[in-house]
Write a structure and sequence with these properties.
Length: about 200
């Protein structure tokens, strides 16, 4: 792979108090028999708006300007943590997530505009619909379907009620480095939503 390429994505970063709430949720769901679950470090959890893949550093300026075009049409909005779910489902979970509620119409409009502005730069449009969520954990490959089901059952049994609101005020272009210890994210640029 070309060393000058940066693995990157655009996201809404979360305030520290939301990360702290997510950590409490994770602690409540952890159990020793499910050692095949890889929990996402709470400080790295974010709402992904668009995964860009590997980009050259020369593209950062044009991506940032596409983000600026997107943000000028949207004022800050309120979001809150929703229900816990899994992809594809809780019977055979691969990814555990928590949904996002609140002014999701604004969030979806912003994401669609961003998708449009980035398509002009040659980025492929996402074929799946946008489901705003925060990834809490991933289950390791190669585990049995009984193990997946037992984890899904545990999640379904624990009815966790979450009351946590936050304002989305900016979007960030993030660099993702995949290290043996896990992914490390670094903000490259950020763009504030219009006042």
């Amino acid at each position: 792979m070309d060393n000058n390429l940066i693995r990157s994505f655009i996201a809404i970063e979360l305030p520290a108090e939301v990360s702290a709430t997510l950590e409490e949720i994770q602690q409540a769901l952890k159990s020793p028999q499910h050692n095949f679950v890889k929990w996402v470090p709470p400080m790295t959890i974010h709402i992904t708006l668009k995964f860009l893949g590997n980009i050259s550093s020369e593209k950062i300026a044009s991506i940032t300007s596409a983000m600026e075009q997107t943000s000028q049409a949207i004022s800050p909005f309120q979001l809150k943590l929703g229900e816990i779910g899994a992809f594809p489902n809780l019977k055979q979970p691969r990814v555990l997530w928590i949904g996002v509620k609140g002014e999701t119409d604004k969030l979806k409009t912003m994401q669609a505009n961003l998708e449009e502005n980035l398509a002009r730069l040659g980025f492929t449009r996402e074929s799946r619909g946008f489901t705003p969520h925060l990834t809490l954990a991933r289950l390791r490959e190669g585990i049995s379907s009984a193990e997946r089901r037992s984890f899904g059952d545990l999640i379904a049994e624990k009815s966790i009620k979450v009351d946590c609101q936050f304002a989305a005020t900016k979007i960030s272009l993030m660099k993702s480095q995949l290290l043996p210890s896990g992914a490390v994210y670094t903000r490259l640029t950020e763009v504030k939503l219009k006042d």
